[in-house]
Specification:
13 helices, 2 domains, alpha/beta, eight-stranded parallel beta barrel
């Protein structure tokens, strides 16, 4: 029990009556009040995770900035929270810029990603005053240069570099820093493109201020990132020697993992950040480079543990000698990760959390796909219709990747802060399903 509780938000417990409580509130009572599927986020856990990153960055002798990878999950309430915490935003579309700004985010503290940014994305970024644009390819450079002239703006850019360094993640689709990647410039190309930009610095409205890498998502070994930082610093050194360029910003990306299952090892963020800080400082010292501003862009490791998905148990299907399926009222539409990546989760019955497990079941969703299996194997008490299933580590890459498959209604989202529960995203209605129809 203690092992699985460690996957839930900070402050999670089981009360004297065997009910799972989140910040003192029964998960089952939240499910009854707001309905299921329901996503509950603990604000205190988000703040704790931000502070862990900040403690790591305090070791850095230069300037540092924490930004949030909005793709993990974004809504106006979260944007307001992060803005109050003085966290910047890594955005990947005009839509993410819009949502973050609706929550009060300062565009100057954003940087825009994307391997095929549309004219709408770039125009929105320029008109909004987004601080940096992370350029992925030469076609984008040409379009951005033309837009900068049109808007009579000088645009700060970083080059995204694919350093040819692999990290071990849970699936090949979440590796982004190898040579065979749709993202970024290969090392040699990046150095060449940067040189051409610097040679034309007097005539271009594009101002190269930094270099960026992102090796993948959900890894738990910092050594490949340190190796990739070395490669970036080699590029920075050669550009300094040839053009006198001083790198102002260095962003080694995000992607640090979190435990999803009781068998997963702990993955504290602070030692990871400390390792990156050491790699940058030592690398700059050896090359006699001034320390750049160090920007980190975590997403999953800020919000994943803070989120809990609550579902209501419905049907059971027992296949003798094969498997027992326990069906719940959510799945593929609100959490496609198991189907896309084979992501593994655990769970418990929130209204019977103190009871011993007596069977191992597969947790299935209601959608018309055989792949709609949330959890392949989990040990539970004998689940009955009406029980509330609580799935921890549900805060990242679930709702942001959700859909209306089978005309499903996207779930409500509740934020817990101290002793209050606030509805921050209402559940969709049937009218929402046809709102855009003509």
């Amino acid at each position: 029990m203690n092992t699985i509780l460690s996957l839930f938000p900070n402050g999670t417990a089981v009360d004297a009556h065997g009910h799972l409580t989140l910040r003192g509130q029964r998960a089952g009572a939240l499910a009854e009040q707001f309905g299921t599927p329901l996503y509950v986020y603990d604000v205190g856990t988000i703040r704790d995770n931000i502070n862990a990153y900040r403690r790591g960055l305090e070791r850095y002798s230069g300037a540092a900035q924490l930004t949030y990878a909005s793709k993990a999950f974004l809504c106006t309430a979260l944007a307001r929270l992060l803005s109050r915490e003085k966290v910047g935003f890594d955005v990947a579309s005009a839509g993410e810029i819009f949502v973050a700004r609706q929550g009060g985010a300062n565009p100057a503290h954003m940087h825009l990603h994307g391997n095929n940014k549309t004219t709408l994305d770039l125009t929105t970024a320029l008109q909004s005053g987004v601080g940096q644009i992370v350029v992925d390819n030469t076609a984008e450079l040409d379009r951005l240069a033309a837009l900068a002239e049109t808007f009579d703006q000088t645009v700060n850019i970083w080059l995204r570099v694919t350093p040819g360094v692999a990290v071990q993640t849970h699936h090949q689709f979440t590796v982004t820093g190898t040579a065979d990647s749709k993202f970024g410039f290969p090392l040699d190309t990046a150095a060449d493109v940067a040189g051409k930009l610097l040679a034309r610095a007097q005539t271009l409205r594009l101002r190269l201020t930094g270099l960026h890498i992102h090796l993948g998502s959900h890894f738990h070994d910092a050594r490949p990132v340190a190796a990739a930082i070395e490669k970036l610093l080699d590029v920075a050194q050669s550009l300094r020697e040839e053009y006198g360029w001083a790198m102002q910003d260095l962003c080694p990306g995000g992607g640090w993992g979190v435990p999803y299952h009781p068998a997963d090892p702990p993955m504290p963020a602070e030692p990871f950040v400390a390792g990156l800080v050491q790699a940058v400082e030592n690398g700059c010292r050896r090359r006699n480079l001034p320390l750049p501003r160090l920007i980190l862009e975590p997403g999953r490791s800020v919000v994943a543990q803070a989120g809990v998905a609550l579902y209501t148990v419905g049907a059971r299907k027992e296949i003798a000698g094969v498997r027992t399926y326990v069906a719940v009222d959510g799945g593929l539409a609100d959490n496609p990760r198991p189907a896309l990546y084979g992501a593994k989760y655990s769970a418990l019955l929130a209204n019977r959390a103190a009871e011993a497990a007596v069977e191992t079941v597969a947790v299935a969703g209601p959608f018309c796909e055989s792949g709609d299996i949330l959890i392949q194997e989990v040990a539970l008490p004998r689940a009955q219709p009406g029980d509330i299933l609580a799935v921890p580590v549900a805060g990242a890459y679930q709702l942001s990747m959700s859909s209306n498959y089978n005309a499903a209604l996207r779930p409500a989202v509740v934020f817990l802060e101290q002793d209050s529960a606030s509805l921050v995203i209402r559940r969709e209605t049937f009218k929402d399903l046809v709102r855009r129809d003509q």
